[in-house]
Amino acid sequence: MKGLKMSKAAVVVLASLSMVLVSGCGVSKRGKEMRTQAYSRMDEVNAGMLHEQATTAFETGQLDKAMNLADQAVVRYPKGTDHHVLRGRVLMELDRLAEANRSFQKAIDIDEEHADAHYFSGIVYERLSRDELASDLFHKSSQLDPDKLQFLMASIESLIAQGQFDEAEKKLIERFDDFEHNASLHHLHGQLMVMQGRHDEASHSYEMASLLAPNDLHLLEEWVRVRHRLDDHAGSLAGIQELQTLHEQTLGKDMLLIKGRALSATGRDHDARSTYQDIALDHGDDMGVWEEFGLFAWELGDWRSLERCTNRLNAAGVDNLNARLFTAVCARESGDLQKAAKVLSRTLEAHPDHPIANALLASVHMRRGENEEAEKAWKVAVKSAPKGSDGVQVTGVLGNGP
């Protein structure tokens, strides 16, 4: 009986163990699924933390550290599209463009509607001068995320780079209402108008952009250049004054030259002369500055300044048309008519129909009493002058007249 009881007990134990084992197998299967999901969530969370650290390193210029962390994030959670995009951006900054594009393409493979991946892939192709592919990717990114101005701007700029000005303008105008208070879009429109030679419209766009971004000095300088092209001298001076007084900006050479031209055009000769003198002092090695200063001095009849410019050009070995004309004028005004005639004759060998050179030669002949020779030179000058010129206008802004 005791053996029987033991046997029954053993059976009970074995049966209970079997039930536990069977039950355990069921829990183990579900547990595996739950554990897999839990591990996946943990990987996703940990990858997210690595992503944040990589982003911080990337933004602070620690590219090697950012690369290492981005790699870890991708390994930890390969399905994370943002991790692939960040990794691609780091590679792009390291100029490893092919690898970068593979990362962006991996993100697109995982999620073909990932706008950032298309955008950064477009930048890669842009750097590789594959403008058409870049344009398609920028357009796609803008379609996927139409509220992101950066994508729209890239799409428009890529069309401009391909010379598709009409298409670029069409796309830009279509979205103006969505970004009417954004200076960048008006700025881009202004640049597009300049490329098409539509400077009046460009100036209006620059005005709008400047109103929306009054502290953008680069934008203000561009607007000054546009107004200069339109011969809006008062507007150019107003912009330059704003740069100098409101923003305390030290003007570069190009802005100073525009200032000098605008002052001269508005009759403020004394201020213009001072401006040109300052430019020559600060940029004395730039022969173009001395030429322009010389042209201004010639127009003004400031022979002393013209002689200074002529001497500087001659000392630098400049022997172009302007330098020769300056030399001839200075010789004429100093009374050395023989030297003036010699320089002009040599100049006319290379430029026989040049109206100003002939007009100057006529003036030299007249001062020497050689009326017949003067008349011949003068006829050539008038004949060669731009259409609509007469004997007074023939020397243009450069001339002193005979």
Tell me what the structure shows.
The protein has 402 residues and is mainly α. It has a domain at 341-402: Serine Threonine Protein Phosphatase 5, Tetratricopeptide repeat (Alpha Horseshoe). Helices cover 78% and strands 0% of the residues. The protein has 20 helices and no strands. α5 (115-127) runs antiparallel to α6 (131-144), α10 packs antiparallel against α11 (217-229) and α16 crosses α17 (321-334). The longest helix is centred in the N-terminal third of the chain and has 58 residues, at 2-59. The chain is elongated. The model is unreliable at 1-25 and 388-402 (pLDDT under 50).
Please outline the helices and strands.
Layout: H1 2-59, H2 63-76, H3 81-93, H4 97-110, H5 115-127, H6 131-144, H7 149-161, H8 165-174, H9 183-195, H10 199-212, H11 217-229, H12 233-246, H13 253-265, H14 269-282, H15 287-300, H16 303-315, H17 321-334, H18 337-350, H19 355-367, H20 371-384
Helix pairs in contact: 1-2, 1-3, 2-3, 3-4, 3-5, 4-5, 5-6, 6-7, 7-8, 7-9, 9-10, 10-11, 11-12, 12-13, 13-14, 14-15, 15-16, 15-17, 16-17, 17-18, 17-19, 18-19, 19-20
